[in-house]
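input
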Amino acid sequence: IGMSQMGAKNMAKEHGMVHSEILEFYYPGTTLTTIATGNWGADSSVTIGASFVTGITPGTDASVLLKALGGGYSLCSSDGSSKTSGKLLTGDIVKDAAGKTYPVVIYGDLNSDGEIALTDLLRQQKHLLGMITLEGACLEAADVTKDGKVDIADLLRIQKHLLGAATIGQ
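output
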């Protein structure tokens, strides 16, 4: 079950559909929620999408996210223990009042430590070489160009981020 990348591309290019229309087509009844927060800057916001929570700046404290989400949401670490403070990590889980869970994705954080560092670049390289397999939130975090695939362009973006030549958008 999923979304055809070619179909979505065609819907946008040939029919002028925007992301919300395409997602509604593939995932009927799904609601995209964007929660703007002043804590991450003017052009940043947390988004609870169909599968993941994105838009979180590396190093953000869990209490900031919980405050931004307001009531009706809880947070736990990937091992299931409740989390109300401490650094947010790729793989932490946001749970809504209905019990639906959304893993946190911090683009570029491939080792789930909440930061973008050399170890993430090495994990990206090992994944591309087939030495390891990234899955779930870490695989999503590896797609730093957000083009629906993990490839050399993502590796180069992480490298440029680490060198200060580019920034990985959240």
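quick obs: The helical segments are 5-15, 19-26, 62-69, 118-128, 136-142, 152-163.
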